[in-house]
Amino acid sequence: MTTSDGDSEEAPPKGTGPGLPPGLRVQGEVRVPTSKSIGQRLLACALLAEGETRFEALPNGKDVLHALRCAREGGARFPSDGKPDDLLATALIPRLGRGALIGAPPHPSEGQRPWTSFPVGESGTSARLFTAIAGLGRPVGSGAEVIPSGTLSKRRSPALFRALKSAGAGVEHDGLEDGWPALLTAAAPPERLELVQPGSSQEVSALLIALASHPGHRELRVVGTIPSEGYVGITISVLERFGVVVTRSSVHGGGPGGDATRFTIRGPLRAPTSPVRVEADASSAAVALAAGALSGGMPTVVRGVGLDSSQPDAAFPSLMTRLGCDMSLSSGEQLALSGAPSNGGSLDCGAVPDVAPVLAAVAGFLAERGEVLELTGLETLPGKESSRIDVLAGGLRAIGFDVDATDCSLKVLRRASRPTGPVTLDPEGDHRMAFAF
After folding, report:
1. Which residues, other chains included, contact 282 with Cβ-Cβ below 8 Å and sequence gap of 6+?
2. Which DSSP category does 223 fall into?
């Protein structure tokens, strides 16, 4: 990344925290972390797979570290038994993200495993993945507790828990009903399982991975709309690396809730023969590309993820072209953007809710220039780490914007005033709010 005069950016003084001083331009090639969404799915699959899974460029954020600990608690082991667990955070992931795990698939003849716990941290993705694994991806009768932290203890996943109960898994909640902490006793997976009116695409992903851990064909029927369905594509892409065949088809009038989506899964999971490299995170790339567009519009490039990615957020450059930017430098191997946003309109973020906070900042930029941008399809945002629509609207209003917000949309109208002094914007513990602010 370079400054406006082309020199390399210097680190901020110690103690000031990350930030961009006024007038700094983001341009050139920007490195972003690799995808924690892919990393968490990779580790869940590695736990359930036959053989040794090798990986590269695994990100070292807390969500992935918790997923790695969950895999170890579930029975996966390092190739060298002499490597102690306390090296999880200090020796395995920070070392260029390289490592390996030997899986512990649920063999029917194995018998019950000792009671274990899955410390999922504050990650909704890991919570749902390892909840499904606890219910359907362990030997019958084996028990596990899924333990949350932070705001995750206030979140729920009713459709997932209903599906697990219908499959015969034992479920007890030690907190909110249909939430975490949750204690589960594993059941044998049925040949057909139904998930009704999911509240998150992660519920679909979790059941796909759990069902894939068993040999043979199984069917997952999802009744109703799958929120942010594109994120299921990330899961299918990871499963395919493990030799699982997943087919998807539509079923009209597929249940009492209306149309359905049928997934046919043929397992089991087998470790890939070559290392799995985690690609750059597309939602982090969106933050970098937006920063470039809003701070001068010079070409900004993120390598390691491209237009061919299974990550839905790789569509961010194309969304920005609708606002006047140029993505001609993007390809199957990189995402790139140039030019500043120049026109408003309406963008449906239903397929890419994780980039909606970044687009809220873009909406503020446009409002300064007399253009109005409305973001729609935000139905899943209130149930995230924070109530994201409310937090975004509150932050924009605090710095003088007029905002119209509903439970599924956000429109930034104009800059009505400017603060006369410092303003504190509270991300409420939500990293994507911090990105936007």
Report:
1. 35, 305, 309, 311, 312, 313, 314, 316, 335
2. E
Q: By three-state DSSP, how is residue 185 classified?
A: strand
In this predicted structure, what is the pLDDT of residue 258?
Answer: 66
pLDDT in tens, 39-59: 999 999 999 999 999 999 999
Banded model confidence at residue 22, pLDDT cuts 50, 70, 90 = confident
pLDDT 10s digits, 322-366: 999 999 999 999 999 999 999 999 999 999 999 999 999 999 999
What type of residue sits at position 432? R
Nearest to residue 269, comparing CAs of 128, 103, 73? Answer: 103
Strand partners for 335: 302
Taking CA atoms, 435 is separated from 75, 223, 231, 342, 362, in Å, by 36, 34, 20, 22, 12
Neighbouring-strand partners of residue 255: 258
Beta-carbon count within 10 A of 399 CB: 14
SS3 content of the chain, % helix, strand, coil (to 5): 35, 25, 45
Question: By the 8 A CB rule, do 285 and 335 touch?
Answer: yes
**From start to end of 285-362, where are the E strands?**
300-303, 334-337, 345-348
> CA-based diameter of the chain, in Å?
70
For the whole prediction, is pTM greater than 0.85?
A: yes
Asked if residues 172 and 139 have their Cβ atoms less than 8 Å apart, the reply is: no
Tokens of 163: 């599906």
305 vs 172: CA distance, rounded Å: 41
Q: Which helix (H) or strand (E) holds 116?
A: strand 116-121
Mean pLDDT of 261-286: 97
- Helix and strand element counts for the chain (H, E): 11, 18
